[in-house]
């Protein structure tokens, strides 16, 4: 959130939530001045609310800056629907990691983004930017393409209307070309990302369905674009996603 975007709410609760929401995925710490600028709050107001959040545990002091507190992690772990999905998926994610030694993600749709709910990785995996709890645009991720290809039509229309942001030279930014890519994903049963969200990184993803056959999540294998053979790995990720779907249907 940045200053000047939208109207600053009047309630204390809403202003406190704005301060927490000011942290982007890449932010480990923010200063008081940065928090005030991103939220549009007066610095004195931000200072008072930040102090309250520190006392509650939602923020922690780190020198002259602040970082998100452990209290937020504790609350996140109590969200039953996401927690249950993560716990059910973890054995399949671990099996997939053991067979590939690449980064394994469990992602869910969140607005027009793909939200990484879980990540299994190791010292042999290619270092990548994603973190648990981080979001990336749907149009340039393998998991996001699954949601766009197999999910409600509204997903595609919404992101196309908003514009397809370019993250790398290989990001698909033309709606017509993206539609063709999604049609291929629909036909093949898996989606791919070839250096479209991060240079040097590729991924392949498959859909996870709930007991009522509704698209719920996606599992992906992510690693070096030079090393990964996406077509060869597609059966493995599809098998893991199918096994998780079958488990959720019991």
From TrEMBL:
Gene Ontology biological process terms from the UniProt entry: glycerol metabolic process; negative regulation of DNA-templated transcription
InterPro entries: GAF-like_dom_sf, HTH_MetabolicPath_Reg, Tscrpt_reg_IclR_C, Tscrpt_reg_IclR_N, WH-like_DNA-bd_sf, WH_DNA-bd_sf
Entry keyword Transcription regulation: yes
Entries under PROSITE patterns matching the protein: HTH_ICLR, ICLR_ED
Keywords in alphabetical order: DNA-binding, Glycerol metabolism, Transcription, Transcription regulation
IclR-ED domain residues: 71-250
The protein, known as: Glycerol operon regulatory protein
Organism: Amycolatopsis alkalitolerans
């Amino acid at each position: 959130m940045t200053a000047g975007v939208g109207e600053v709410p009047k309630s204390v609760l809403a202003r406190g939530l704005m301060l927490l929401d000011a942290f982007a995925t890449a932010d480990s710490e923010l200063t008081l001045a940065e928090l005030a600028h991103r939220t549009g709050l007066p610095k004195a107001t931000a200072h008072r609310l930040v102090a309250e959040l520190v006392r509650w545990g939602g923020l922690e002091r780190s020198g002259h800056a602040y970082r998100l507190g452990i209290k937020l992690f504790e609350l996140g772990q109590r969200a039953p629907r996401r927690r249950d999905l993560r716990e059910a998926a973890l054995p399949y994610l671990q099996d997939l990691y053991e067979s590939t030694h690449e980064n394994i993600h469990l992602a869910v749709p969140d607005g027009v983004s793909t939200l990484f709910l879980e990540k299994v990785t190791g010292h042999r995996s290619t270092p990548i930017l994603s973190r648990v709890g981080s979001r990336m645009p749907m149009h340039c991720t393998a998991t996001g393409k699954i949601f766009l290809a197999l999910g409600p039509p509204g997903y595609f229309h919404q992101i196309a209307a908003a514009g397809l942001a370019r993250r790398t030279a290989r990001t698909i930014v033309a709606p017509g070309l993206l539609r063709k890519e999604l049609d291929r994903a629909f036909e093949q049963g898996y989606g791919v990302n070839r250096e479209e969200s991060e240079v040097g990184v590729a991924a392949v993803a498959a859909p996870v369905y709930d007991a009522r056959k509704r698209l719920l999540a996606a599992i992906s294998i992510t690693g070096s674009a030079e090393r990964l053979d996406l077509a060869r790995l597609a059966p493995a990720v599809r098998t893991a996603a199918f096994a998780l779907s079958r488990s959720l249907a019991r």
